[in-house]
Specification:
With about 240 residues, the chain is α+β, with helices and mostly antiparallel strands. The protein has two domains: about 160 residues, Glutaredoxin, CATH 3.40.30.10; about 50 residues, Antioxidant, Horf6, Chain A, domain2 (Antioxidant, Horf6, Chain A, domain 2), CATH 3.30.1020. It contains seven helices and 13 strands. The strands form four sheets. Strands 5-4-3-8-9 form a five-stranded mixed beta sheet. Strands 10-11-13-12 form a four-stranded antiparallel beta sheet, with helices on one face. Strand 1 and strand 2 form a beta hairpin. The longest helix is centred in the C-terminal third of the chain and has 16 residues. Keywords: Antioxidant, Oxidoreductase, Peroxidase, Redox-active center. Pfam families: 1-cysPrx_C (PF10417), AhpC-TSA (PF00578). Thiol-specific peroxidase that catalyzes the reduction of hydrogen peroxide and organic hydroperoxides to water and alcohols, respectively. Plays a role in cell protection against oxidative stress by detoxifying peroxides.
Length: about 240
């Protein structure tokens, strides 16, 4: 799978933890062949897998991702999908995805990896033992990996894993990416139900002396029964 360049995929069965360097591997895709790290270098990236082409839920998911692709692009985020189907299958199915999503004419907005031998899916732990093809071989689940390709080690910053029966909310995927981007350089965390443009929580370790420099527009304190001064918000 990796004859042209060195790959650094983890050993089979080794789970990827948050912050781990994301593996590099050769991608055979609808947009040609390339190394994964070359594709994501200098950008945030989202790799997401789906069980199979020409299936209803997967069609809705990839269509929604395509509809949001320009928004992701503006944020400096590259999308790339994956399943165990062939490139030929992907290219044929893209027509259905584009029609369902009412996408404008032109090239599909992101590549889809053909992992027919399941090498990538196995090594990244993306196979669903309960979802199998007609030959009884496990298919890929609905995995999502968010990787910071701007850092040399290309660390994984977030992962989500869904069963085949549950379609993903790509607006939530976008929201999670917004959170990673905002919190990458600021001393904040995003609360429940947060959306870009709404208040963030100031991290507890930030002292009052640091507040004017870190948050020149100020912060808001929220009183709680304990009397502890840890509920502080600021605009993102």
């Amino acid at each position: 799978m990796c004859s042209r360049q060195k790959c650094d995929l983890p050993k089979k069965g080794k789970p990827l933890n948050l912050g781990d360097p994301f593996p590099n591997f050769k991608c055979i895709t609808t947009d040609g062949e390339f190394m994964f790290h070359d594709y994501i270098d200098g950008s945030w990236a989202i790799l997401f897998s789906h069980p199979a082409d020409y299936t209803p839920v997967c069609t809705t998911e990839l269509a929604r991702a395509a509809q949001l692709s320009s928004t992701f692009n503006l944020k400096g985020v590259k999308l790339i999908a994956l399943s165990c189907d062939s490139v030929e299958s992907h290219r044929g199915w893209i027509k259905d995805v584009s029609a369902f999503g009412e996408l404008p004419e032109g090239p599909f907005p992101y590549p889809i990896i053909a992992d027919e031998k399941r090498d990538i899916a196995t090594l990244l732990g993306m196979l669903d033992p309960e979802e199998k093809d007609k030959e009884g071989i496990p298919l890929t689940c609905r995995a999502v990996f968010m990787i910071n390709g701007k850092e040399p080690q290309k660390p994984m910053k977030l992962s989500m894993l869904y069963p085949a029966s549950t379609g993903r909310n790509f607006d939530e995927v976008l929201r999670a990416m917004d959170s990673l981007i905002v919190t990458e350089t600021r001393q904040v965390a995003t609360p429940a139900e947060w959306k870009k443009g709404t208040p963030c929580m100031v991290l507890p370790h930030v002292t009052d002396e640091q507040v004017p420099k870190l948050f020149p527009t100020g912060i808001r304190r929220i009183a709680v029964p304990s009397g502890k001064d840890y509920m502080r918000t600021t605009m993102d």
